[in-house]
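pasting for the record
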Amino acid sequence: QVQVLESGGGWVQAGGSLRLSCAASGRTFSKYAMGWFRQVPGKERDFVAAINWSGGSPAYADSVKGRSTLSINNAKNTVYLQMNSLKPEDTAVYYCAVVPWNARGTPLTHVSDYEYWGQGTQVTVSS
């Protein structure tokens, strides 16, 4: 059974930084893809960042581009999302997702692209 476990959320003042981690386990991952999405109450889940197993150029939403860095550790099936210069509008529940086989070969940016999801981690940015 695949498990997706997020960590690293919390409370931070505007301008601060957080590092989110996401580890996938429970099966063998080969050409997999992982991504981060976020959601606020009453709204759809939005794309934040995504990366492929090959560690090529990640994809970022415009809202976080230039302030966030996504990296991958294949040995641990883990991705890390470093978020800097956080703003109150970054407040949301952040979800990690994984798909075990990415035939497309490029980062996946849609909710429907992913097969397994974590429970989410809350990020709160105060002004």
